[in-house]
Design a protein that fits this description.
The protein is built from three helices and nine strands; from the N terminus they run αββββββαβββα. It is of the alpha+beta class and 173 residues long.
Length: 173
């Protein structure tokens, strides 16, 4: 059997065929490697885009949360119950005020109020005389003790305020 020699490369034809087959296989392997590389790049780009969207959504939510409402107060609300007064002449509602804005919160009723109204209630303290070792001392006592039942959303607050206005109620207007 005579050995065929490729005229352009000067190598036997079977060696050329084997080398060409190896080259074809190498190209397929390289394509697979490139496909893996491109897929990883596409995934990284997609994740970066999703992260940017998530970051933008988080920033928008934080801005909305930190943006004051129409009265200039933070958008933070709580479900609370202001407890009944101990004195016979105590009003049936608490009236915390801040910068000319007054809330009227009915005592003994679960209501939604601004966080700043709670801050005002916390500051409303009076000194009460208490017997101690044969004499009297004064102790600070909250004027409007309350219980927090949890946070409320702005939508809940607005719906509650509208309901109270419609009823002419005093729970939190």
């Amino acid at each position: 059997m005579a050995l065929e020699i490729n005229d352009s490369f000067g190598i036997p034809a079977d060696v050329e065929a084997r080398l060409r087959a190896q080259a074809e296989a190498a190209v397929v392997i390289d394509e697979a490697a490139l496909l893996v590389k491109f897929t990883e790049e596409a995934k990284a780009k997609r994740l970066a885009g999703l992260k940017e969207k998530a970051d933008a959504a988080d920033i928008a939510a934080a801005l909305a949360e930190n943006t004051p409402d129409a009265h200039g107060f933070p958008r933070k609300y709580f479900w609370v119950t202001v407890h009944e007064g101990q004195d016979a002449g105590a009003l049936s509602y608490a009236t915390p005020s801040l910068n000319g804005y007054t809330w009227q919160i009915q005592r003994g009723v679960k209501a939604i109020v601004h966080s700043v109204a709670l801050n005002v209630l916390d500051e409303a303290v009076e000194d009460k005389p208490v017997r101690f070792e044969g004499g009297l001392i004064t102790r600070p006592v909250p004027m409007f003790p309350y219980t927090i039942h949890g946070e409320a959303t702005e939508a809940e607050y607005l719906a509650f305020a509208a309901k109270m206005r419609a009823q002419g109620g005093r729970a939190a207007v």
